[in-house]
User: Which sequence fits this backbone?
């Protein structure tokens, strides 16, 4: 009984997050960061928060992100109540965490779930760049690792959407160790034949890039996403010169051999369905018209 | 000042002391018959990671570690010990051979971090580190890692996924340099000393947090003042760890290492209603 209520509550929260929408402030109209043209918020939300004029992909929250690829009504959140403690007793961290939880409606910087994509059951997760910049905390690493392990045990395909500023400074070395933890879990998953599709979204940097985000069997990214290990500012300071236009963009990574494809948000769900079928998941496994 | 009275910031300074012995000196003084293996077989040889085959008390091992360099030319060539992707891919090549030829692995960690440069990004710095982590986690030979100076960020961890992870007494190990930490969190790199205090980056702190397994004592005032004393301590510690790991089966070594890192941050979690 209580689990039904919990599920209903989760759905409600997910719907709330969906309605309140993603990263963009609630103005009726705003200038697109891509083309600078004024775009109505309503027009944006009708376009999955992709600018109808220039195709700029606005960052979106984790619940909304998953709702764009999952079959309706199949979202079942995992470990929603698993949150970061304050392992280093870092001044001010606890209060900031509580604020972020209230404001964003997720317990941590990642939402993990089971769901179906085109009828195929999958383990899915999405980082939320609004929550401490999607930075790697012990709880985020744990939720991702549990998802990988569950996918391995249940023989499910794994799909992760990354969006991260890097390490969670307030958790210090424990943040760093999550890189090893998640990479190790993925290595086990991979050796058992699991399929992992990694989707990089704006921005994916630091410790997340240098661990689970880069280890996909299939590497996808959204157009224009910033993807890298070191941030552009740090690199400019180190080498003492301006970086070329388009450096660390998804297009740049594709050109340098680190992505299989750049997939616009509108085409992502069909692309995932096709990839799952090509790996033998679902009815279309054997042949696909 | 006695080692035990040093502040975290003083230890950071010691860990960065240019006279502090590093990978090259450890290889020279603790190992015999060293054959350096160079190159990643893809595009280059990155000298900021030095590695190869050697004997440790007669037994063949794969040894590798960060190298900052001793001369100005070396500093420049090795980016002060900040590896490019080629360095990590060379390390992967050496680790894969260690697995193939059943050699125990010893790594020495001493880097401010992976090199943040244009070409390093173009050649996939993040991917190189991620692959190293995944590969190291799955090896079925014994892996002992020692943080000997600065253990900075993912660039350090990429050589740090060991069955046993040790630290020299005055070494530091952290998610980012104190300067980087202060600049990200407080937008003020000059507050680095304050950052040292809150980051929990000393060997004693990390032992308490369960991140490392042991501390190798240094001579009073730091390793550079009496390197021979340090070599003896380090030799004894490595012998102890390798002997203990030699008793484990290959699957037990991989499983043990997985479990060790699987638990990292366990006590940093809380459950509550969303």
Assistant:
């Amino acid at each position: 009984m209580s689990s039904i209520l919990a599920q209903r509550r989760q759905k409600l929260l997910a719907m709330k997050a969906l309605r309140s929408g993603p990263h963009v402030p609630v103005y009726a109209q705003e200038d697109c960061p891509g083309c600078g043209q004024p775009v109505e918020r309503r027009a944006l939300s009708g376009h999955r928060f992709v600018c109808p004029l220039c195709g700029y992909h606005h960052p979106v929250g984790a619940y909304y992100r998953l709702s764009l690829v999952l079959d309706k009504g199949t979202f079942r959140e995992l470990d929603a109540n698993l949150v970061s403690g304050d392992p280093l007793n870092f001044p001010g961290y606890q209060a900031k965490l509580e604020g972020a939880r209230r404001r964003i409606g997720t317990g941590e910087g990642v939402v993990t779930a089971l769901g179906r994509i085109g009828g195929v059951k999958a383990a899915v997760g999405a980082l939320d760049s609004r929550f401490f910049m999607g930075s790697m905390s012990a709880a985020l690493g744990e939720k991702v690792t549990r998802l990988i392990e569950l996918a391995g045990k249940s023989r499910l395909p794994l799909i992760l959407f990354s969006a991260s500023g890097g390490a969670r400074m307030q958790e210090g070395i424990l943040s760093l160790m999550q890189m090893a933890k998640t990479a190790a879990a993925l290595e086990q998953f991979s050796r058992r034949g699991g399929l992992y599709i990694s989707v990089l979204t704006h921005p994916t940097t630091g410790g997340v890039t240098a661990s689970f985000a880069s280890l996909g069997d299939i590497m996808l990214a959204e157009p224009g996403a910033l993807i890298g290990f070191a941030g552009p500012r740090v690199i400019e300071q180190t080498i003492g010169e301006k970086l070329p236009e388009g450096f660390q963009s998804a297009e740049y990574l594709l050109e340098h051999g680190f992505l299989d494809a750049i997939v616009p948000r509108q085409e992502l769900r069909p692309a995932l369905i096709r990839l799952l079928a090509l790996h033998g998941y679902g009815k279309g496994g054997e042949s696909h018209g | 000042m006695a080692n035990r009275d040093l502040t975290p910031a003083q230890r950071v300074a010691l860990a960065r002391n240019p006279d502090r012995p590093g990978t090259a000196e450890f290889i020279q003084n603790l190992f015999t018959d060293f054959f350096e293996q160079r190159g990643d077989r893809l595009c280059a040889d990155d000298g900021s990671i030095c590695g190869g085959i050697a004997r440790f008390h007669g037994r063949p091992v794969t040894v590798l570690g960060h190298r900052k360099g001793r001369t100005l030319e070396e500093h420049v060539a090795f980016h002060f010990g900040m590896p490019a992707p080629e360095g990590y891919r060379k390390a992967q090549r050496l680790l894969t051979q260690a697995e193939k030829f059943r050699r125990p692995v010893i790594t020495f960690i001493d880097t401010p971090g992976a090199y943040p440069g244009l070409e390093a990004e173009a050649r996939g710095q993040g991917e190189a580190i991620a692959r190293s982590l995944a590969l190291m986690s799955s090896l079925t030979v014994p892996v002992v890692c020692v943080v000997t100076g600065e253990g900075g960020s993912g660039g350090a961890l990429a050589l740090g996924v060991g069955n046993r992870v040790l630290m020299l007494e005055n070494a530091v190990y952290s998610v980012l340099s104190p300067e980087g930490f202060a600049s990200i969190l407080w937008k003020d790199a000059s507050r680095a000393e304050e950052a040292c205090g809150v980051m929990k980056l000393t060997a004693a702190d990390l032992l308490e947090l369960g991140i490392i397994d042991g501390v190798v004592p240094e001579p009073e005032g730091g390793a550079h003042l009496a390197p021979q004393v340090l070599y003896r301590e380090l030799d004894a510690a490595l012998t102890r760890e390798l002997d203990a790991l030699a008793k484990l089966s290959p699957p037990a070594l991989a499983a043990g290492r997985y479990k060790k890192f699987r638990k990292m941050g366990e006590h940093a979690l809380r459950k509550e209603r969303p």
Observations:
- Chain A touches chain B through 72 residues (CB under 8 Å).
